[in-house]
Each structure stands twice: as structure tokens, then as C-alpha cells.
Amino acid sequence: MNVLNQTNSGSPNKLSSRISLVTFVGLGVGWFFLVQAIRLGHAGTMSVESFDALIVWIVALGVWGLLMSWLSLSGNGRNPAFLKLLPGLWLPPLPVLGTALAITLSPALRSAFFALASGVPEYQLILFQALRIAAIGSVIKTSLGRLPPAFGFGTGIPDLLFGISAAALLLTNASTLVPPTLLIAWNIIGALILIVAALILQLCLPGPLQIFRREPDGRELLDFPLFLAPALFGPVLLIGNCLQVAKHVLHGL
Fold this sequence. Notes:
- By secondary structure, the protein is mostly helical.
- The protein is built from twelve helices and no strands.
- The longest helix has 32 residues, at 12-43.
- The radius of gyration is 18 Å and the shape is globular.
């Protein structure tokens, strides 16, 4: 997801505002899951062990966000040695793969995600995806020549349209009329947009896989806070897509 489009500056005031923004982002990432966990815990559909495991997962995401913020703010994200590692191919999937591994190894976390998939109302999962409307910021910045067009237009526009479709489902109450199979397909499309975005990011970065060489190149996307979009927000939204698919699979479509 392409959000929080600001440019880096060395001024202490702006740097401190960005550090406080990191705190806000860390809270925002966990908000949706924390609120749902508390609600389900009070309803008795999530055990104490599962709740604790989910809190640990949320904290781990927050730590990941802080680490990615440091990588960006320190300038290490633009380091040629780092770029040689092809970060666009492996860095965005890490939160998703780490979550999948944790769910596999931890019965408590697995139970927590089952409770989320079963207990979170459909409209709230769709509302979560409506956050992708924020991609309009990247589309605007690309039109102003401040982001690589292949990424800003190639992924920002589909992401924006997906967010608009989520808002349309909510405002028209169509989610109650759409067959589950179509909602599953809708979520798969949303997940594919995010997966393709990570690939396009790598194709915009200097290195052996760079195809889109027009300035500005993909290094603009490694600056704070833009870097949090592919490194944190996109993966969390993809997990949200997976949750909604799991909801309908668990309910037998």
C-alpha cells in the first residue's frame, strides 16, 4: 500500500516529527487486531493464551516497523551494498512469511487467527481494506514527478481502485449481497496487487533486475516514511486479505 508520502529532511524538528510518526504508525498497525482481540476476548471466543499470543505478534510487527524506519531514516536503505541484496524481492514478504511460520508453530496464535477469521464482522474486514484509498497520495506524487511512474501509477492506481471498491461495498451494503466466492476472488485480487507491487519496486531499484530506469528511480521509495508502505502496511493488508478468505473457507463458503 502506498501511504504516508513525505520527503526526508535533515531538520531536527521534522526528524522528531517523523520519530513521533513512527510511534503513531506502530500503534495504528496494531489497532485493528488489538481492538478485535479485546472484543473477542470479552465475548469468550478467544482464550487468554490466544490473546497473549496475538499481542506478542502485534508487538513484533511494531518492532519490525521501527526497524524499517531506522533502516530508512539512517540512509542504509539506499546503501549500494543493501541494494545488491535485491530487497524488493524478500523484504516485503518477510512479515507475511513470519506470520505464517508463527501460526504454524504456535497453537495459541493459530487459535487466535481462527478466532479472528470467524469472529470479525465482514464489514470490518472490508473497512480495513478501504485504507488503501490512501494510495491516492502516491498517484499524486507520481504525477508531480516525485516517484517512479512504473511504481506510482502501476501499483498506486490499482491499489487506489481496490480501496475505492472496498468503500463502495461498505457504502452500498453490497457486501451482504455479494456471493462469498466473489468476495474471495476480490481478496485474491487485492493480495495480488500487493505482491506485484513488491516486484515492481525491485524492478525500479538499481541492480541487475532494474528495468525501469527513468528518474526518479525506486530509491525514492526507500525514504522514510514511504518505505513503510511496502515493508509494513502492504504486508499487514495482505494478511487482512488472507483473513477474509479464511473466514469464508471456515464457514464452508
